[in-house]
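in:
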């Protein structure tokens, strides 16, 4: 990844992305990752011509990995103002192992720098209210939840919740708080059914429980991904939409970051007012292509060009 100079106008659609940034450690190499980093990277590279410049809010260690990660963040063109340095805790790492049956196993270490994100006064006081705030559940496993809640209180903004259930950090109170502060929620079908059990709806179907969540937590849109089977959504108005199955299993290199890719493109569609079905189809198509890469982020930024062209993102009005 090389240093990027976008020569872009000031952001016209400010959005904040809160949570973990880290290295995904594959057997052969380490790649930058963490759902918030992945989402912010995709959103920037697809949306910059439309004035979308996400501010990534996270924390890295004062160590070699932290230095590398900050360099990658800056090279990607992301706004670095919200990246804090921690003198005591290391830059986050996740050991990624491929399972014989397919999929991956993640070993997420505790007490990483991103567990201790602070409510940074520079960000809270110097920024206008962001249009959107993206956050997940994993980053709330430790002290960072205090900073997130401070941000939610400080801003009048729309919340995009990306559920990420990772044992042993699955807590009902965190899920309920997160759902209460989200306008749009993205979750995998497996996670949705697990939450149903946790909330006392063990016998409910995914669709029925989705309807219950929308009603109980006043959610505008619920997005549900289901791997090769595609994705579906429910809206508060009762609208239901779904994609077709991908049918591209033979092209899969790994599925790391596929859900983040989906979230980024659907969120882009929300910001640019795409029709729901169009946003859903585009998000699924982009996620399928990410599965053809090693890791969650393309090393060659020209990867984004066909999508930017097909979706007319380089033009004054995206459709």
């Amino acid at each position: 990844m090389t240093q990027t100079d976008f020569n872009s106008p000031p952001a016209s659609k400010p959005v904040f992305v809160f949570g973990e940034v880290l290295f995904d450690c594959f057997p052969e190499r380490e790649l930058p990752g963490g759902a918030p980093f992945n989402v912010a990277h995709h959103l920037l590279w697809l949306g910059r011509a439309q004035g979308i410049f996400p501010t990534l809010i996270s924390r890295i260690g004062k160590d070699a990995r932290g230095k590398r990660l900050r360099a990658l963040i800056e090279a990607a063109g992301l706004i670095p103002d919200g990246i804090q340095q921690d003198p005591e805790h290391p830059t986050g790492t996740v050991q990624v192992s491929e399972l014989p049956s397919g999929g991956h196993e993640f070993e997420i270490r505790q007490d990483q720098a991103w567990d201790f994100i602070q409510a940074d006064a520079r960000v809270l006081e110097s920024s206008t209210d962001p249009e959107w705030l993206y956050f997940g559940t994993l980053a709330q496993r430790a002290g960072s939840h205090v900073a997130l809640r401070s941000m939610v209180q400080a801003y009048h903004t729309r919340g995009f919740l990306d559920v990420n259930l990772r044992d042993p950090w699955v807590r009902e109170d965190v899920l309920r708080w997160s759902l209460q502060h989200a306008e749009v929620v993205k979750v995998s079908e497996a996670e949705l059914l697990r939450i149903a059990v946790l909330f006392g709806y063990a016998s409910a179907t995914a669709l029925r429980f989705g309807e219950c969540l929308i009603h109980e937590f006043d959610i505008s849109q619920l997005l549900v991904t289901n791997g090769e089977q595609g994705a579906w959504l429910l809206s508060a108005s009762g609208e239901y939409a779904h994609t077709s199955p991908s049918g591209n299993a033979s092209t899969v290199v790994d599925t790391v970051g596929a859900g983040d890719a989906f979230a980024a493109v659907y969120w882009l569609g929300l910001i640019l007012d795409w029709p729901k079905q169009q946003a859903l189809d585009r998000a699924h198509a982009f996620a399928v292509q990410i599965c053809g890469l090693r890791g969650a982020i393309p090393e060659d930024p020209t990867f984004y060009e066909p999508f930017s062209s097909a979706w007319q993102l380089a033009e004054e009005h995206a459709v």
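note: The chain is about 35% helix and 20% strand.
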